[in-house]
Batch of 4 targets.
Target 1
Amino acid sequence: MARIPRPRRTVAVVVAAAVVTVGGCTVFQRVQGGLERAKDRRDLADLTRPAPWPRDELRIPDGTPRAGAQGATYESGFSFSFPLPTADDPRALATYRMFQPADDGSLAAGGANCAAKILSCTDIGNGITKVVTHRTGNSAASVALYRPHGDRVFSVAVNGVHADQSRLRRLLIRTHTATDEELLRILRRPGYRTDWS
């Protein structure tokens, strides 16, 4: 057997070590990526389980900010808040909700009991109701738009009465089915763990 000259042997060892290192890193990255995807699937199933609809029926407004949105699903629906500056408050948060209507079909399940004295309800067309909550000693003024659609009601609300109504209307009308990535971003808080993750 012929002897490999020392410089070639060193190069061969370095190349072999590089191949093993790169191969090991690739395998580790694939395993790590698989574990992260599995955790995302478990978290998403757990976070959307309470909703009355499958997660592929949860809708969010187009252009929902990628940062600052936080929400939850619950037995009667899904909601989340996100930054929406207004003339009243440049740091205002809007709350978008998708919920089941009351048994009588009214908006009362969403907090819009139009018979209440502190509320003013106005039909603004296209099936949308504007609800203004007047300021009282223990609550701030706010404006909300509600749009019933089949077995669900969509609403968007913001504190203060000077919110741009056309902007709120767009948030109700221009929606899309939330992707898994969007739902995780909205529903999963930092450090969230399921019982099995």
Target 2
Amino acid sequence: MDAPRFVTPAPAKVTIALATAPAPVTALAPATATTTPSAAARLPATTPELAPESSTTAVPTTVPTPKKTTPAVGVACTPPGDDYATAVDGSTLKCTKAGGPSAKWVQSVSLLGTRTPGAPCEVGSGVATSPDGEEMFCLGQGPDTNVWTVVN
């Protein structure tokens, strides 16, 4: 009479996939302590299982929008986005690096809007922008020949 064979259980093989969708997990069936080769052949080799659902939850976050400061002489600004502005008292301000390494609002002559370069103007009337968005001043070209000139 043959002595019973003892089979040491094989280590289980587990595959876990980290994903948002369920993924199959494979696990080997442990061998029994007193199986014979013919009995072991009848056991299924793998048992399909599903990985647990993802438990990640989106958490809404609120990022406060920085309040834009009211333009005033001496207050920091960001050129070229804050090129010209109107102060509380109605005066015109220009964002520039005049007198220091960082930009700040300074008093300016009036911004007259869009003008055509080379068109006649009155010296000291204000500043204007060209149709391309370039800054212009009225400069004298001689007696009675003042024209809008793009500043480079």
Target 3
Amino acid sequence: MRRPTPLIVIGLAAIAAAVVLGAIVPEQYELAVLIPCGLLSLAFAWGLGKLGPAWLVLPAFMVVIPGTAVLVSDGHRALMDVLATPQTCVINSVEDLPGPDNPAFAHHITCPDGAELRIVVLGEQDKRMQPGPATVLRHPVMRPLLADRNDWSDEWVFGVPIAIFLLLMCATTLRARRVMRQA
């Protein structure tokens, strides 16, 4: 493949798909989203290496691989901050979920419309909420989140697109310089 544009577009579409699908699928299937989207996002690095000098592939890998992994969960939280509707619900009970690494807490919630929700929050004891009223972020398509525990990394959510834009600028500038030298 001689043209880098389809590779770059495929890689960027995979990163965007990781954000959207990460918000829709249940938490236990996030790995099923991460693996194909992570592999397809490598097309961006490959296309960038074809567009500009080959050494740009390394910084592109350094942005794309961890960026896609983080955006599967942080992208969901950021989307919920923007698109979701806050609703006051009641936490009925909280159960500790056994796990090998991180503790997790399942919050059993009842909303005024009668919806019974189970929201799992990963983290230490400070992430556990007490039974009582709580604000829940709800969207018709995406998984609900507790508003008080919706902590996402703005450095990653904004940093990955900025880094991708800067890499594209570098690649196109260096390619234009090479073309001008050949003319």
Target 4
Amino acid sequence: MAATPSLAPSKTPQADVSSPSEEEEEEGEQAAQPPKVTEVEVTDTAQGDRVTFTFDAAAPDYLDSYEKELNGPEGRPIEIEGDKFLRVAFIGVDPESHFSPPSPNKRVPEVRHLMNFEGEMSIGIGIVAPDGAADPAYDITTKGTQVLIDIKE
């Protein structure tokens, strides 16, 4: 005797096989895109000076160091105002990421884009050191889409 198919709904859970919406596809594409810098700002704080980099996605990883001289493409020296030069390389950023120089202040006379190379965007920060000899202390923290560079007095 052959079984007769039931017209009652199945009690077995069914997987949702609907395709993603256009909005979900756009969000997925944006998540896959490397972050791009959208704004750079220099401000005074109670402890010193702050350079804030804002990105259009989660803040990237970075490498940082004081340098005697800052270099751009092909190792050519780049002149930048200040006594001390902090180089920060943001890792895994959009290769088209650039920014306009922010308004300077007395201790941070210049922040400049140096170059993009293999997923890294290098920037230079010129700092006026009060005594001219010691590299000013600094802290770098990330907060959501921002990288905060606090240069101590």
